[in-house]
Amino acid sequence: MKYNRNQRREQEQTSGSENNAWTSYSDLFMAVAVVFLIMFVFSILASSASTFKIKQEKKEAEKYWMDKIPDHKTKKITEAKKKTKDNIKNMQRKRQLLEVSLAQISQIAKTLQENQGATEKLYETQLKQEEQLDEANKVIQKKKTDITSFKENIEQLEEQLKTIDSEKNNLNKELKEANTNKAKL
Predict the structure, then answer these.
(1) What pTM value is reported for the model?
(2) DSSP H or E run through 68
(3) Phi-psi region of 70 (alpha: psi -120 to 50; beta: other; left: phi over 0)
(4) How much is the average pLDDT of 158-163?
C-alpha cells in the first residue's frame, strides 16, 4: 500500500483541517474561560466593595450605638434632651399652677355653697322686712291722714273755742253791766 503523494496531501489537508477545528475549539473555550474569569474577578471586586461598604456602615452604627456619636449629632441630641427636660419642667409647673387654681376654685365653690343658704335666708328676711315696711308705711300714711283730719278738727274746734270765748267775754261784759246796772238800781 503505497501512498501516493496526493493521497498524503489529502490526508495532511484533512488532518490539518481537523487540527484547525480543534485549535478553533480550544481558542473558543479559552475565550469563554477568560470571559468567565473576568466576570468572576468583577463579581469578587463588587462583592468585596459591598462587603467593605457594609463593614463601614456597621462600624459607624457600632460607633453610634456605643456612644461614639459624632459631635454634631451629640450636640443635637443634647439640645433635644435639654429642650425635652425644659418642656417637662414647664408642663409640671403649669400642672401645679392648674392644681392650685383648681383647689382655689373648689374652695370658692364650697364657700359659695355655704353662703348660698345664708344669702337665701337674708333675701327672705329682706322680703319680709320690705312687706313690714310697706305695711308700716300704709299705717303711717293712715295716721298722717288721721292727723291731718284731727288738725282740721282742732282748727275748727279752736275757731269754735274763739267764738265761744268771744261770746263768753261778751256775756261777761253784759253780766258785769247788768250787775252794775243792778247795783245802780
Answers:
(1) 0.33
(2) none
(3) beta
(4) 90
Instruction: Report pLDDT digits (tens) over 61-96.
Output: 777 666 666 677 778 878 888 998 999 999 999 999
DSSP 4-72: PHHHHHHHHHHHHHHHHHHHHHHHHHHHHHHHHHHHHHHHHHHHHHHHHHHHHHHHHHHHHHTT---HH
CA–CA distance, 173 with 175 (Å, rounded to integer)? 5
Over range 115-141, report the average pLDDT: 89
Q: How many residues are given for the chain?
A: 185
Helix/strand/coil percentages in the chain, nearest 5: 95, 0, 5
Q: Where are the domains of the chain?
A: 1-68
